[in-house]
Design a protein that fits this description.
Layout lengths: L2 H8 L19 H10 L4 E3 L2 H6 L4 H4 L7 E3 L18
Antiparallel strand pairs: 1-2
């Protein structure tokens, strides 16, 4: 296949991203997300046992040696319409 044919066939499945929106842990929009990436900011944080218990994590699970007491927090998660996307609220 020649280069021109290969290039022409690429246009059949080409996709152009003309806009992007999002909210991410530690970043309320795409621009803040990329600033965090460029700066090497880590959005994962460690949780205390008190925080995890208050969030409803079972004490037996916290005692498990493989349980990771860390995660990414998305501010305003209560504003997410889980049902619209077919997700459970939690």
């Amino acid at each position: 296949m020649t280069n021109s044919r290969l290039q022409d066939s690429c246009y059949e499945t080409a996709l152009a991203i003309i806009g992007m929106s999002g909210r991410f842990p530690g970043a309320s929009d795409v621009q803040a997300f990329w600033r965090n990436v460029a700066a090497g900011f880590k959005s994962i944080r460690r949780f205390s046992e008190q925080e995890l218990l208050a969030a409803g994590v079972e004490p037996s699970l916290l005692a498990h040696p493989n349980y990771v007491k860390a995660g990414a927090v998305l501010e305003g998660i209560d504003l997410f319409d889980a049902a619209f996307f077919g997700f459970t609220p939690r």
